[in-house]
Design brief:
By secondary structure, the protein is an alpha/beta fold. The protein has two domains: 101 residues, Enolase-like, N-terminal domain (Enolase-like, domain 1, 2-Layer Sandwich); 273 residues, Enolase-like C-terminal domain (TIM Barrel), CATH 3.20.20. Helix 3 crosses helix 11, helix 8 runs parallel beside helix 9 and helix 10 packs parallel to helix 11. The longest helix is centred in the N-terminal third of the chain and has 21 residues.
Amino acid sequence: MRITAIKTFVVDGGYRPWTFVKVETSDPGLVGWGDCSDWNNVEPVVAFVERFGSYIIGRNPLDVEAIWWFLDAHTRHEGGTAFRAMAGIDSALWDIRGKAYNAPVWQLLGGKIHGMASEPRDRIRLYWSHCGTSRANPRRAERLGLEPVRTTDDLRRFAADVKKAGYTAIKTATSFALDDDPLTQRPGRHEFNGALAPWMRRRAETVVGIFREVLGPDVGISLDVGWGLRLGGAIELARALEPYGMMWLETETFDAEALAVVRRSTSTPICHGESLYGLHGFKPFLQLHAQDIIMPDLSFNGITMGKKIADMAHAYDTLFAPHNCHSPLATLIAGAVCATVPNLLIMEFDVDDAPWRDEIMTNPFTIENGHLVLPARPGLRSDLIEEKLLEYKGNVRC
């Protein structure tokens, strides 16, 4: 069996594009699908996928890890964009491998973890990501067919709906400017320089406070500030959130020592890692125990490297909660890895996703009581429907 072609599809994901990779083989009908979605750099990722195709067409697609390291050797100077393209190809090759051996990818990765339970991990606990933030954006809410959240009463009603949905954890952000609460408004022009402005702190406390009030003490709540805060601001916000018993504060930096200072300065758990690549990217953060939880994005790292990162985190006594805010295929990719690692905490899932999400899949996945069900179908457990991918062709500027 040989790789005969590599194709890309960019699909409208509602508020971001989804980028898919299709790897075709010399065995009739045997293809693999991967995800290398990116928020802002779709064109260069697609270009790298096409370039890598010229490197590996003619190779055996079952040599998944050998191909990973072959591409790695050719991209040492290329950076993260190349890594994302490699990740999409890698996931597609794992899909082919599973289909060829008539086994799900999680089986080829070592099988479902039992942990302390008597039964294997056949469901993956999810948290509701971007919880309410798409609804806080009126244009996005309208496009996705969601009820907007404009006031504190709206947010309380939405939080009650989240509780009924059965999710045991959520992640939200400081996107809410509640019309009836002037303390959540941004006063005039504000320069986002990494400091924690008073209005930002008030907005975070208001939003987290309402969720905690409605969801109760046992539902995990995390807050994502991305790259918005630097060292001092992150410490200040982490301390302000301590009374709410957070699941984590998510804050990004490339400075492992700075993040270690943040973690030592607060009882609020710290999570990061969505923008890091490979073992060497995570190594300094793990060595310094700079975080409680790491969250590598498997659309950026692939299955081969994602499993290695999770295992390395386990060696450093760190929990694993993969970043997963891209396509439905990315959910299947992350779920396959999550089934096999002993240090899994939880997995991200965007509930308020594009309403055509399931239309592009031959076998849409099932969510039950806030958990992803892992069926035993071969490969990644679903193909994509090319006609639908073309119908929902993505706007790379969205």
